[in-house]
Amino acid sequence: MSLDTQANYIRTIFDRIAPVYDSLNDWLSLGQHRIWKHMAVKWSDAKPGDTCLDLCCGSGDLAQILARRVGLSGQVKGVDFSPAQLANASTRVASCYPPLPIDWVEADALNLPFPDNYFDAATMGYGLRNVTDIPRALQELHRVLKPNAKAAILDFHRPNNSTLRSFQQWYLDNLVVPAAQQFGLTEEYAYISPSLDKFPTGSEQLQLARLAGFAAATHYPIAGGMMGVLVITK
Ligand SMILES: C[S@@+](CC[C@H](N)C(=O)[O-])C[C@H]1O[C@@H](n2cnc3c(N)ncnc32)[C@H](O)[C@@H]1O
Description:
single chain, alpha/beta, binds S-adenosylmethionine, methyltransferase, UbiE/COQ5_MeTrFase_CS, SAM-dependent_MTases_sf, 2-phytyl-1,4-naphtoquinone methyltransferase
């Protein structure tokens, strides 16, 4: 499959998942993804007045947390290439008062429509595993961040511990896929496990970040190593 075909396939999957994405996330992580997302925003070092990026924003959880942190003097760009996810993100914040300072931008993480050195901080939740070219995504992130700015990248991770590894596989096969099946989305969620097999480990992510030009990189395993946050500094 060419990279373009792969990207189209991934976009279609996320367009189809959009209507149930939030409920499934809450149910499957027992609400814990909200805590992990708050941790990622904290580690991004976003501050009041900052201009921030939420890459692969989906329905916009991280963009919303960033927006509350930067306040009305700041600005957040929520970027995704799935129109259905962005429509959902926009509807979710439409009734917020005071309004949140978020622009929803339909764009490819591999070719961002922003100038160099533009953002004070960035987040990416469950996006890096889905892009077709991870080194390129990290290079783009590096390009658009200001010097010394940080990005916090949250995603699944295969734990080193063999018991937790088996538990994670059991959980994906026996809870995640059957839950998705209820919504007619078996194929869409069955892809998580193979995508995780191909996803770089924490230490491989550190190497990739350094190759992309980041001056510092730390990978924090969370949930027993079943998730991780890569924190990188330009
Ligand atoms: C698993 S969802 C994560 C959504 C959200 N960040 C969260 O944490 O709930 C991954 C998102 O990445 C987006 N995505 C994947 N590849 C992308 C790319 N190359 N450019 C922009 N968005 C992309 C998908 O459309 C999808 O909305």
